[in-house]
Amino acid sequence: MNNLALVLVTPLLAAVTSILSRKTRFKDQIAFTGALIYLSSVVLLAYEVMETGSVTLQAGGWAAPYGITLIADHLSVLMLSLTSLVALAIVLYSWGFISTKGKESGYYGFIFFMITGMSGAFITGDLFNLFVMFEIVLMSSYALVAYSGSKESLFISLKYVVLNLIGSSLMLVAIGGLYSITGTLNMAHMAQILSEGSVNMAPILGLASILFCVFAVKSALAPFHFWAPPVYANSPAPASAIMSGISKKVGIYAVIRMYITVFSQAKIPQTAILFAGKSVTHAVGHLAIFMATITILLGGISALNREKLDKLLSYSSIGQVGFIFVPLSIAMIQGFQQALTASLVYIVAHGVAKPALFMISGVIKKLTGTTNLEDLGGLSESSFLLSSSFFILIFSLIGIPPLLGFFAKLLSFQAAFNFGKPFVLALLFIGSLTTLLYGSKAWLKIFFGETVEYDCSKVSKKELFSIIILVTTLLVVSLQFEPVYLLVEEASKSGLNTEKYIETVLQE
Question: How many structural domains does the chain have?
Answer without folding.
Answer: 1
